[in-house]
Automatic annotation (TrEMBL), chain A:
Region called Disordered, residue ranges: 176-206
Entry keyword ATP-binding: no
Entry keywords, A to Z: Nucleotide-binding
PANTHER family: PTHR47978
Pfam families: Ras
Record protein name field: Rab5/RabF-family small GTPase
Gene Ontology MF: a single term: GTPase activity
From TrEMBL, chain B:
Region (Disordered): 1-42, 464-515
Subunit structure: Interacts with RAB1A and RAB10; in a GTP-dependent manner.
Biological classification of the source: Eukaryota, Amoebozoa, Evosea, Variosea, Cavosteliida
Keyword annotations from UniProtKB, A to Z: Cytoplasm, GTPase activation, Membrane
UniProt keyword annotation of Membrane present: yes
UniProt keyword Membrane present: yes
Protein name as it appears in the record: TBC1 domain family member 13
Principal place of residence: cytoplasm
Annotated PANTHER family: TBC1 DOMAIN FAMILY MEMBER 13, TBC1 DOMAIN FAMILY MEMBER GTPASE-ACTIVATING PROTEIN
Bias (Polar residues): 1-11, 30-42
Gene Ontology terms: biological process: intracellular protein transport
Protein role: Acts as a GTPase-activating protein for RAB35. Together with RAB35 may be involved in regulation of insulin-induced glucose transporter SLC2A4/GLUT4 translocation to the plasma membrane in adipocytes.
Basic and acidic residues bias locations: 15-27
Length: 206, 515
């Protein structure tokens, strides 16, 4: 239905992972098609959006929340992943700690996130094979055990970056249709998912 | 592999301290400037050649007057007079009150001036100027000792029975591995501090210049000495501009000591703003969430329509203001604007309340766009804030912030709702200003106000209690001045009648002073 109308379906997507794994770089590569090795560290969360077109011509508009990686900002994360229909959990294939941290994020999402959230488990920085610490098989098996889809990317060379988002997009609309049936139409002034994080909170200080 | 880390940073510390090379790295290419404007926020880092001839340059302006516009001459004279004021305020004894008053309106671009002023404003340099040199010697020695002490290298310090797999708490190897985790964490962020600035990033091996090494040591030592807060992402963004300003200072007393001096100034500044970085204070009034709430209340008071619009769009203030407030806006503007802004923030007698005024000024400067934008439009606009040229850039924001601080900013009247539109044009609503806001006396600031603005009446004025003179380190004296607004008496319109310390201003009127 939506595809025939050529109206974009809006989805909230959140990027999670340890500091310095390349969350912002992935988002910027996807949104702007650029790579900068020294992006300022993300404080709080930054917001971007980008639209993709599925083969059936459905337009999927991603509202991307790129979160800060450091532990100090962990307590802020729920307001960004709650109500998100998709999550990308990123680790750096050259850094064992970041892999462990990514697994913790998956656990947290499983416990606290939306049960229908589409989760991608992403190993970034494949442009640095000589420094690799995490083999693809390790990421792959963790992902399949947990029902996630797995992909390795390079934000630097753009390898698999748009594939990552396309794969997520393909999984989304059916979920959304299910939701529309159960929850009815959303507030016309607010795009689906956007209002959720602040609902009933009266700002950040509740 | 691990040892490389700590020995490198120890090594280059000595190299940096012993050499003045760092200060010859004066980066004049990346920083735009506007030299014709003495108040210029251009902050052109002046190279050494300039230090020699600063007075000559000014004199030369007089020698060939016909080459100059009348305005430029006036500016040059004004600049020299203003510079004289700045220098006299710190001549023998530091007149702290004067220093704050002057600096609030921007520190002139004169070699070393901002550097010494910031050291005073941040509570590093004592007011007794005769004590400076011994004070500096003592502190720099202390810092050097910390570098040696805290940057542990077990290869050099190894005890007989110690070994890399020793997990006991007194093992220097154990401490070493923990330190390396911290160092990695710091390193990740340091190498992306002000990455566009050639000063920091001039090396081919991007992200590893001697200046980055200095930042790394400062943050590492700060984290070691303050285990309760340790290192938090964003501290690098606070430290970066301070270190930059100090490293550009080529005056004999400070040249070559940017690292140690920046460490102490940073520590002092963190004493005031560290609550923003502290996770456990997120829910307290002094933590970041408390500050976000205060900003939100301020916006509600000064521009209710816009605030309501944000509420309707579910634009949670945290989405845009978390980074603004945590980093003192250092990621929002180009460095010259940040330096000018921090002149005001560091000399704000109401310690960092002016930051809230500036943030709300940024918002109301683009209110029309915000009112017509969607959630996504607004968030992108606020997260990627561009200083609009037609609003006189940073100067425009600061001017608006002062109006907000002084209760002089009045938002345009709300746009009529749909059911009122048919009344538009009828005499009853054609001059709402006189009808709704019947001001007893014309405001002296009439010309300052934006075209739509009206003279404010008490019941819509954000109140600002007269706050005590607050010294940088007395946290308990910080007064929350933005409580509820509506019930409190308004601030007088006549700024000159209020406490001088709250109204820092230059005594010289300047052709380009806040219009």
């Amino acid at each position: 239905m939506a595809g025939q109308m050529r109206k974009a379906l809006t989805y909230k997507l959140v990027l999670l992972g340890d500091a310095g794994v390349g969350k912002t770089a992935i988002a910027v590569q996807f949104v702007k098609g650029q790579f900068n090795p020294f992006l300022e560290s993300t404080i709080g969360a930054s917001f971007m959006n980008q639209t993709v077109t599925l083969p059936d011509e459905t337009l999927i508009k991603f509202q991307i929340w790129d979160t800060a990686g450091q532990e100090r900002f962990h307590s802020l994360a729920p307001m960004y992943y709650r109500g998100a229909q998709a999550a990308i959990v990123v680790y750096d294939i050259t850094n064992r700690n970041s892999f462990e941290k990514a697994k913790e994020w998956i656990k947290e999402l499983q416990q606290q996130g939306d049960p229908n959230v589409v989760v991608a488990f992403v190993g970034n920085k494949v442009d640095m094979p000589e420094a690799r610490k995490i083999q693809p098989s390790e990421g792959e098996s963790y992902a399949s055990e947990n029902g996630l889809f797995f992909i390795e990317t390079s934000a630097k060379t753009a390898e698999n970056v748009s594939e990552l988002f396309m794969k997520i997009a393909k999984q989304l609309p059916s979920i959304q249709r299910q939701k529309d049936i159960t929850s009815g139409p959303s507030n016309p002034g607010v795009k689906p998912g956007v209002g959720a994080p602040s609902k009933g909170k009266g700002g950040c200080c509740g | 592999m691990f040892s490389r880390h700590s020995t490198t940073i120890l090594h280059s510390h000595n190299r940096l301290r012993d050499s003045t090379e760092a200060h010859r790295m004066a980066d004049t290419t990346d920083v735009p400037s506007n030299t014709s404007d003495p108040l210029s926020q251009g902050s052109k880092p002046l190279g050494e050649e300039f230090i020699e001839i600063d007075d000559k340059v000014l004199d030369s302006l007089n020698i060939s007057p016909r080459l100059l516009e009348e305005k430029e001459k006036r500016q040059a004279i004004w600049f020299r007079e203003r510079l004289g004021l700045f220098q006299s305020a710190i001549e023998e004894r530091v007149d702290f009150k004067k220093v704050k008053q002057l600096a609030f309106d921007g520190i002139p671009d004169h070699p070393g001036l901002r550097s010494v002023y910031w050291k005073i404003l941040l509570g590093y340099l004592p007011t007794d100027k005769s004590a400076w040199s011994s004070f500096l010697v003592r502190n720099r020695k202390l810092y050097d000792d910390w570098v040696v002490e805290l940057v542990v290298d077990p290869h050099e310090k190894q005890k007989k029975d110690d070994h890399p797999l020793n997990t006991s708490s007194d093992s220097s190897w154990n401490a070493f591995f923990k330190d390396n985790e911290l160092l990695d964490e710091v390193d990740k962020d340091v190498k992306r501090t002000l990455p566009h600035l050639h000063f920091f990033n001039h090396d081919k091996n991007a992200g590893s210049t001697e200046h980055y090494e200095a930042l790394k040591r400062i943050l590492f030592i700060y984290a070691k000495l303050n285990p309760g807060i340790r290192y938090v992402q964003g501290m690098n963004e606070i430290l970066g501009p301070i270190y930059y300003v100090y490293a550009m200072d080529a005056t004999p007393m400070f040249q070559g000591h940017a690292e140690a001096d920046a460490f102490f100034s940073f520590t002092s500044l963190m004493g005031e703003i560290r609550d923003n970085f502290c996770k456990s204070l997120d829910k307290s009034e002094t933590g970041i969430a408390g500050n976000i709430m205060r900003l939100n209340n301020l916006l509600k008071d000064i521009d209710h329509e816009l605030w309501e619009d944000f509420e309707e769009k579910k634009l949670n203030p945290q989405f845009y203001s978390f980074r603004w407030l945590t980093l003192l806006l250092s990621q929002e503007f180009d460095l010259p604007d940040v330096l000018r802004l921090w002149d005001s923030l560091f000399s704000d007698p109401r310690r960092f309340d002016f930051l809230l005024d500036v943030c709300s000024a940024m918002i109301v400067q683009v209110r029309e766009q915000l009112l017509s934008g969607t959630f996504a439009d607004n968030l992108k606009l606020l997260q990627n804030y561009h200083v609009a040229d037609d609003n006189a850039g940073m100067q425009g924001i600061l001017q608006r912030a002062k109006e907000i601080r002084d209760g002089l900013y009045v938002a345009p009247l709300p746009r009529p709702k749909a059911d009122l539109r048919r009344f538009i044009g009828s005499p009853a609503l054609s001059r709402p200003a006189e009808r709704l806001y019947n001001s007893p006396t014309p405001s002296p600031y009439k010309d300052l106000l934006p075209p739509m603005a009206l003279i404010k009446t008490p019941n819509v004025t954000r109140s600002v209690e007269s706050s005590p003179v607050v010294t940088p380190h007395k946290e308990e004296e910080r007064v929350n001045t933005i409580t509820g607004g509506f019930l409190k008496p308004p601030r007088p319109f006549d700024a000159s009648s209020s406490d001088e310390d709250e109204e820092p201003h230059s005594t010289i009127s300047h052709p380009l002073a806040f219009r």
